[in-house]
Amino acid sequence: MNNQFFTQIETSRIKYLSCSNVSPSRKTMKPKILAAAIAIALLFAAVPGLVGSSEAQIPPETWRQSNLPLDRVIIGYRARYYKTNILSELSSMPDTEVVMEEDALNFVVVKTKDPQGLIQKMKGNPSVKYAELDQIAYAIFTPNDPSWSRQWGPQNIYAPEAWDTQKGSSGITIAIADTGVDYNHPDLRGRVTLGYDFANNDKDPWDDHYHGTHCAGIAGATLNNNIGIAGVAQCTIMAVKVLDSQGSGYYSWVASGIRYAADNGADVISMSLGGSSSSQVLEDACDYAYEQKNVVVVAAAGNSGPSDYTVGYPAKYDSVMAISALEKGDTIAYYSSRGPEVELAAPGSDIYSCVPGGYRSLSGTSMACPHVSGVAGLVLSQNPQLSAYQVRNLLQDTAEDLGAGGRDHLYGYGKVDANEAVQVA
Ligand SMILES: [Ca+2]
Ligand SMILES: [Ca+2]
Ligand SMILES: [Ca+2]
Ligand SMILES: [Ca+2]
User: Fold this and answer.
1) Ion ligand 3 contact residues with beta carbon within 5 A
2) What are the tens digits of pLDDT across the range 201-229?
3) How far apart are the C-alpha atoms of 401 and 316, rounded to whole Å?
4) Relative to the alpha carbon of 231, which ligand is closest?
5) Which terminus of the chain faces fewer neighbouring Cβ atoms within 10 Å, N or C?
6) Residues bordering ligand 2, an ion, CB closer than 5 Å
7) Catalytic site positions
8) Which CATH class is domain 72-134?
9) Which CATH number applies to 139-424: 3.40.50.300, 3.90.226.10, 3.40.50.880, 3.40.50.200?
10) Which of 313, 322, 318 is nearest to 275 (CA)?
């Protein structure tokens, strides 16, 4: 099963699927290498030994799929003042259409028949801070055996002990930036505040996939309601849809989702998604949330293990906590990305959580990420005065060291410890 991402190669049409149907799909799947774009993707699992370095490599099979065409360019301008100049220059160009304007982060998104040509043209404009291809981010998880299994994540990170002190406050908001949330799920109903759907540009962030609902359940499914599972924190969940029904989305959607969450009261942003290439717009959005809006930003490290130096974006940015995935027994999951940027580890394999219409088990760093987001929510519920920077340091300081002594590339500072973190908060 699985592959990883990372490369300097654009794989578009990559298909995304569950382990259960990997074999048949493999035979028919042909990776398509598109022109000069940049890295992308990630998601599911990894073929052991697949990647030798962070250098561009083409996975033998790629099966992340997106229907999104790579026909959009993000143009960032240096200050609000320059936007008019940019728009007027664009209006004189044939075959270009402005499809999105993000004033808070100073960028516009332009649909064009010639993305590389437009990028080159705009880079010569002194008002332009950056011009880049609007890349695709993917949900990072591996659907696994559909048989139901027991939850082990909350127990493993000492959440039940933490709950004696703090179960989570509805005054603290954890934004799930993902495929949306099934806010009518019996284990989430009444706990979800509706954000926005950047994939469809509407106000209803309904989950037309299932990945986002799974992540929301891990962080915040209702405790003690006699149904389903127990989420880590009884905080408010904000549903922000930045990935489409296939589990993929443009970087511009992710960036706007981060900005939206930060501007609308999120205390924590949980991103179980990523891509293989860096992006100015994504980094700007994460920095905005963490540095300017005091939001704890947490992201899946990526499923590009077991090779080292495989942490993806946005996890790799300084403003974002990169989370690796554990198997039962606290060993690193083989698919989990590794590297110096890994900050904390949390349960990721065989995680049982909500999906629209029920529950199922999934695996991935996607599942590890919302465990940490939930613990951040518990810490802030216990002490709302803490800054995002303080929460981050507290989670690092209270983590349970695993593997090699001290911070390491597999577990970061160690396994997140909900009880210790709440006690210290
Ligand atoms: Ca919608
Ligand atoms: Ca429940
Ligand atoms: Ca980071
Ligand atoms: Ca260690």
Assistant:
1) 320, 322, 341
2) 999 999 999 999 999 999 999 988 888 89
3) 21
4) 2
5) N
6) 187, 222, 225, 227-228
7) 178, 211, 366
8) alpha beta
9) 3.40.50.200
10) 313
